[in-house]
Amino acid sequence: MKHRYLALLCLLFSSPLLAQGFGGEHEKDIAAFIERMVSEHRFSQRELKQLFSQVEHKASIIEAITRPAEAKPWYRYRPIFLTEQRISGGVTFWQTHAPLLERAEKEYGVPAHIIIAIIGVETFYGRHKGNYRVVDALSTLGFDYPPRGNFFLSELEHFLLMAREERRDPVDFLGSYAGAMGMPQFIPSSFRAYAVDFDGDGKRDLWSNHADIIGSVANYFARHHWRSGDPVADRITRKTAVPQPLLEKGLRPTLTQSELKAVGITPPTPLNKDETASLLALDSAEGQQEYWVTRHNFYVITRYNRSPLYAMAVYQLAEAIRTSRAASRDLGANTPG
Description:
This protein is mainly α. The protein has helices at residues 2-12, 27-41, 45-52, 59-65, 74-81, 84-96, 98-108, 112-123, 134-144, 149-166, 188-194, 210-223, 244-247, 257-262, 296-304, 308-334, and strands at 132-133, 174-175, 233-236, 278-283, 289-294. The strands form 2 sheets. A 3-stranded antiparallel sheet has the order 3-5-4. The chain has a two-stranded antiparallel sheet with strand order 1-2. The longest helix has 27 residues, at 308-334. It is globular. It starts with a helix and ends with a helix.
């Protein structure tokens, strides 16, 4: 309350901005940010000062971003998402929203099980959308997390523009500790670029409108050039390690069929004549590595989250959901009436 009272006094007497929970050390940075939003985007200085007087610095956000799940080895990361509950939840989500998923796949060329897996990994089909105010999260990271401060200040800029475009109060938005929002956890720049009004009601609602949620995920993948019908990844078995220089080429597919063949790698799903691939090594619990040949569509998943562990979890969850759904449908078809 003391900080809020001081902030209100600053506004009343036109003294320098003192954001709640930030204190004087960030006062100049916040003031400069406000000036830029006013000059570049014609925001009201008075309204932004009032907004930032309500912003709270959250130490828990700094703590959370320093220990992301993607820092875990694969054998500890995978069990977080490849669970029976998440697989069965994906099958239920598919059954519940089948017409929307079918329409999205038809319009965008992105398969239903990939869309579902994204939502499953991100928020467990909406169970964990985040309880941080987005403006608090982005301000905390933008002004008080130097390793990625510029990125989060850019997202804060997009967020304020987004709130204005959507005609909503910025303090009303809730999301993750990193400012990701809704069931698919779009960051503000992604919301502005890829969220769609899939049911035509004049709004883009990624929190509770399943049409907009499904359509927006599909649009995101389509805009990042998902190739309908193409494979995603193949696990390969080797008795010797894959040469390290090939693993260090990164996630973008650059290796040709002949380059793979030269080191004894033949993917279960052969590459097309002009297709390229990447190689990925993941840590197993036995202290060994499992090797994967990843394709263009795997790279597209990494445009949603740049971690290869994340992309592999999405892919494997998607395949598990598809397999489980097919099995349940076969069981239902073979059950006597």
